[in-house]
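[Q] Does anyone have a clean structure-token version of this?
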Amino acid sequence: MTVLYDQKELILDQSLMTKTASPAAAEIRAIFDRIAPIYDRLNDRLSFGQHQIWKLMAVKWSEAKLGDNALDVCCGSGDLALLLAKQIGISGRVTGLDFAREQLAIAKQRQMAKCPTVPMEWLEGDALALPFADNQFDCATMGYGLRNVTDILLSLQELCRVLKPGAKAAILDFHRPDSGYMQTIQQWYLANIVVPTAADLGMKEEYAYINPSIDRFPTGTEQVKLAQAADFSQAVHYPLIGGMMGILVLTK
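[A] Here you go.
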């Protein structure tokens, strides 16, 4: 399959495009609404608190600075948006967008407790049709969202569209490691730690989706190709913890 963008040709093989397929958006939205009450608590327990370090890395690579107009796509309960708020200060603005209403309600509550003075807006919306003008944001982040959209290429195109020229975006997510040894560790961790822990809180089925979602998710190299097809001028993927996690850093 050949995709043309501004006279640039990139070959995206059929296997890559197939891997971007995922369950219906309504199904994914329902999952995130149901897990909203325990989402932050489970993230802390399941990552042993390390997810906060990965999120700090993503915000750093977004190059958010004082006075910026920042965007957090698939913001969930607001972790990355609140970290962006600390970087851009009261002279900037942060917009958090998510399609899960219950997650947004928690994000608003957390803002009032942690960053009441920074201008922040929480919007219910679609990552595949961002409700913003072109060239609007100075920086952007996305945490554990790209893996769950129904069209990864379109999501990246929308993100590129709303960023200003030269702006950066940092996308954090789970990945399937290249190493067979690390894949074995990841499979064991998901089956013996993540799902049982979620089951203790009545959320076994909701967290069982993680494993198949990682299988569908393009590798770091494939994500770079998709970002180039979406018209980003630069794309670099940084693997973390043996490739089980990664951050895709993009420049418009």
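[Q] Thanks! Anything notable?
[A] The longest helix spans residues 180-200.
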